[in-house]
Fold this protein.
Amino acid sequence: MSLAQHSLAQHQNGWAIIASFLVAMMLTLMPLPDGAEWFRPEWVAMVLIYWCMALPERVNIGVAWIMGLFLDVARGALLGQYALTLTLVAFLTIHLHRRVRNFPLWQQSLAVLVLVALEQLLVLWVKGIIGQSPNNWLYWAPSLTSMLLWPWMFLVLRDLRRHFRVT
Amino acid sequence: MAMRAALLVLASVFLMTLDHRQQHLETMRATLAMVLYPLEYLVSLPATAGNWASDAFAARSHLISENENLRSRQLKLEARLLKFDALLAENSRLREMLQSPRMVDERLLVAELLAVDMDPFKRQAVLNKGSLAGVYRGHPVLDAKGVMGQVTEVSPVSSVAMLITDPSHAIPVQFNRSGLRAIALGTGEADRLELPHIPNTADIRVGDLLVTSGLDRRFPPGYPVAKIQHVDKDPSQPYAFIVARPTAELERVREVLLIWPDHLTETSESEAALGEDAPEEMAQEAPSS
């Protein structure tokens, strides 16, 4: 594919990206049984990490910020809380994307663990500042479940991207 | 990119400060919530479809027995309602005598829960009625058994209610038996409220019913809130450790009631009237003894 063709073909099938974010948001809103909600993975953050890694010129920190605002409203959190944390997660992912992209899957999972844990740490700070800090070790469970689910998530999104040729 | 990231971080911090300190962001939140509403609706569809299917395919015998149950229940309730009407009349007559008119009937609206657990550290629920149906911030939310919470955010077609078990919620209550006033704080756990700053010597027993006192001018007085579940009076501590269990089925209901409390202002007058009663009784007792 020549350069001209490439630039013409650029920014195609953006709906696949939007659809993946919609599904992630639905999984975030989906009611879970009482004990299981602690282990809900950070779906939106995971999808964001994937797209920032695969198409950093497409899904940038602006997208992260807007998704963060939606997540704030969906979770009834302070407006701006997840906007802040997702922006930083996207920033770090885009900064590291060349390296992380070439990691084997299990190493990518570790990177996701660090990124999601960082997101949770920032949320914990914000909650601490406004006086709602949770005192429970289960608070960190979503980092672990995100890490464990990352390989599957990665394969599904990669197939989606290749199948619909999202660029 | 670092520049843009820094700008967005600043914007987020600015938004959080605004949201925490003031209530200027309601319209922004409401707009975003409107966009999310179809998703919330979609996510709640399986549960709705399940309910519909279980209704549609219920066995005939089951329906007959349920119908009978409901009929007998309605009969009982109607019999009780007869008495209630009489009591209502008597109550308003007595209140007239005390010169403190108070409406007992309140306007009601039935809403459905769309989602409950948005964040495990908060206790909130999304309702399917919004400002178009007249819901407002601070609207009391009840179920058939007691107070559930209050509305904290309103968008045109949905609203978010904070439950009384949310760690940042407090509700002024009164012991139905002793009349003692207290404040019930949410703990973040599903079936648990705590009552701080009640002295060890206070007259409190396990099983006592807590009702709303109405002193907050938000919840109408007299609705059940919780039952005392555990009282720990440690003499070395200045205050008793009291745990109560909400009477409302916070984790189980699908339909909730939104009520418009009228004439909340009368509560203080009626209490003042009750306060005046006491010396009169004393005066009446004095000559007889």
Notes: The CA atoms of residues 10 and 87 of chain A lie 24 Å apart. The two ends of chain A are 13 Å apart (CA to CA). DSSP finds seven helices and no strands in chain A.
